[in-house]
């Protein structure tokens, strides 16, 4: 199931299908670890972000469900975050290395990457319970799949459309607020908030792509560029 809500289908069944698909992909990645443990954790946490955004989009219809499941996803992601943050530093240095203009810069960044890779491995070694945390995240995903039956959403198309529109507007309001704050203050945390808002916008464009494919494709391209730029 792609990360997409089809507008000609009942909203509840679509949200359940999308959520179930994301949880199943996260479980598969964490169990198989095709590209190693670190990449599996990174990929699973991306699925958790997609799920939290999906629930945020329809949050006002079932606030209790969203609060409980958001906490579950937040905790599962946080348990895996320390090693992921260490890996993110390596990715950033690799990006900088691709823009090195002198041999000295390239050598310095290569050395920096080696140090950060050692640091990541030391963190992983120190976290002797990392595999236990991964198992816990898998168990949380399986529990979350079962609780999808508890989710309630409007059954009438008009009410469903109003719910989606409300969630969409809330996301845009958060983005505007973050942008204003960036212009006024400009410290690192404000840009982090703007990046999260841009990520949410990109994900919402993916979820609702079928409403206006050509326009949403273009908007997604711009949003992705903004997310990548802010990330670096």
Describe this structure in words.
The protein is mainly alpha-helical. The chain has 2 domains: 1-153; 156-232, no CATH class. The chain has 9 helices and no strands. The chain has helices at residues 11-32, 37-57, 63-79, 81-97, 103-126, 130-147, 157-184, 188-207, 213-231. The longest helix is centred in the last third of the chain and has 28 residues, at 157-184. It starts with 10 loop residues before the first helix and ends with a helix. 23% of the residues are buried. The model has no long low-confidence stretch (mean pLDDT 92).
Helix-strand blueprint:
Elements: H1 11-32, H2 37-57, H3 63-79, H4 81-97, H5 103-126, H6 130-147, H7 157-184, H8 188-207, H9 213-231
Number of domains: 2
Helix count, DSSP H or I runs of 4 or more residues: 9
Question: How many DSSP-defined strands?
Answer: 0
Over all CA atoms, what is the radius of gyration? 19 Å
**What is the general shape?**
globular
* Class from secondary-structure proportions: mainly alpha
Spatial gap, N to C terminus: 30 Å
Helix content: over 70%
Order of helices and strands: HHHHHHHHH
Low-confidence spans: pLDDT under 50, at least 5 residues? none
**Overall pLDDT metric:** 92
In terms of DSSP E residues, the strand content is under 5%
Query: Strand count, sense and closure of the main sheet?
Result: none
Short description, anyone?
The protein contains nine helices and no strands.
Features:
232 residues; mainly alpha; 2 domains; 9 helices; 80% helix
